[in-house]
Design brief:
Elements: E1 3-7, E2 10-11, E3 18-19, E4 32-37, E5 45-50, E6 55-61, E7 64-69, E8 74-79, E9 84-88, E10 93-97, E11 104-109, E12 118-119, H1 122-129
Antiparallel strand pairs: 1-9, 2-3, 4-11, 5-10, 5-12, 6-9, 6-11, 7-8, 7-10
Length: about 130
């Protein structure tokens, strides 16, 4: 599967921890940042794949599941630590669900919003990847 769990460097301190994303933590130049919050526990987000863009997801608070499909297999990754991120590369279908109360999902993206980069129908995704 075209994904990777990446440890985010952190500085631990008795006053609280500091996580740092710079330089080579993610393998792309960050061009877009957004976050999901106040997501009802019964709601699903995502439901798409990207043709060219990479995304890096971090659970800043709480937890949620990311269900991934590459057309051959399905894998579930639970994000629940702000010092671990999930890199999703191209041609991977993703759905986010099982949001805990107070969950915040930060997304770093390799490009600005481009609708033509999205595949929003799972059957079209299967055809696209062959």
């Amino acid at each position: 599967m075209n994904i990777e769990i990446i440890d985010i460097p952190k500085v631990e301190d008795y006053r609280g921890n500091l996580a740092i994303i710079e330089k080579d933590v993610v393998p792309f130049e960050i061009k877009r940042v957004y976050y999901l919050y106040d997501v009802p526990s019964s709601a699903k987000r995502g439901g798409h794949a990207h043709k060219d863009q990479f995304e890096f997801l971090i659970a800043l608070s709480g937890s949620f599941d990311v269900v991934l499909n590459d057309g051959k297999s399905t894998q579930k990754v639970t994000l629940n630590k702000p010092d671990k991120g999930l890199l999703i590369k191209t041609n991977v279908w993703r759905e986010l669900d099982n949001f805990s109360s107070g969950a915040v999902c930060l997304v770093l993206n390799s490009d600005v919003f481009l609708e033509e980069d999205y595949i929003r129908n799972f059957e079209e995704f299967r055809k696209f990847i062959g």
